[in-house]
Amino acid sequence: MRDQTNHSESAETPERVLARYMSERGLKSTRQRSLVLSTFFHAGGHLNVEELLARIREVDPKVSAATVYRTMKLLTESGIAHARHFGDGQTRFEIASEHHDHLICTSCGTIVEFEDDKIEALQLEVARRHGFTVTDHKMELYGRCGACAEKARSA
Amino acid sequence: MRDQTNHSESAETPERVLARYMSERGLKSTRQRSLVLSTFFHAGGHLNVEELLARIREVDPKVSAATVYRTMKLLTESGIAHARHFGDGQTRFEIASEHHDHLICTSCGTIVEFEDDKIEALQLEVARRHGFTVTDHKMELYGRCGACAEKARSA
DNA sequence: TTCCTTGCAAACACTTTGCAAGGCC
DNA sequence: GGCCTTGCAAAGTGTTTGCAAGGAA
After folding, report:
1. pLDDT at position A62, please?
2. Do residues B111 and B46 lie in contact, with contact meaning Cβ atoms separated by under 8 Å?
3. In the CATH scheme, what architecture does the domain A7-95 have?
4. Which residues have CB under 7 A from strand C?
5. Which of A16, A45, A126, B2 sits CB 3.0–4.6 Å from A94 for a disulfide?
């Protein structure tokens, strides 16, 4: 729903990005596609198709999984969403404009999101040294969160 | 979890690690398991099951995919290998003692390994700020490699 | 001899695709 | 009306599992 980087009137809403992407290649706007888009944004990311579909069906029970897969592919290709693969064999999607990295507690599963400009700058630097042009990245730090370390200490 | 160069007599070879892991739980050493292990190490990592199986079958054509899956699970559980999921829907394995980060060309699939101490230091720093103690991490940079950028330019 | 391991094929989970009906422009 | 999109079911992937035969200890 709401977003962080609002530039007054020049705001590029996901709806607008998608609309342009579709009209550029003769694709059509449909009730299902709008529903997938709004559900995805309302949920805020990290959902897999199954979870997304469940929420979508609260509104329209007849939407099929195939449509969700097809629409998420569209969102991915148009740059609105990013597909991520964690270890669980499913694809999860995140809002492209809200990319961040993750701290994951291997003990309780807590996921903390973060962003670090210095690290990102160094990533570009490393890539450049290898002749790469980076378009995306993924960084996950695994370990123990403060609460779990605390629990382990008193146990 | 850094540094694993060979220290003469105290060397913990993968064979030894695996042997201990298996004997601790009554598992047996077999021709197939040894073959999977040696092939995996000889290849140096980043192989998926299909590729691994192809190399294994050059030696013993009768080894089944199931055995490779089962053995790689064993190697993963014993801490000898790490399972990694890149964007292609398959599981790739790497040698646990040779952890590094990856640059992945989204055009040709090339994987380049790298390590950057400055980035790793900053990762620990970020984690500390969030109260986390990091034990492992994963970082992948996606983009276009030099060769593919070249090709795109001349096309 | 005991019980683990193997190869095979079937089962699985997730995702993609062919097709006829339906819907947007 | 033309052509894209949908839902369904079938087909594809990559991976796991049940089972009977084979093999290590």
Report:
1. 96
2. yes
3. Orthogonal Bundle (1.10)
4. A 28-31, 48-50, 65-66, 69-70, 73, 89-91; B 22, 26-28, 30, 32-33, 60, 62-67, 70-71
5. A45
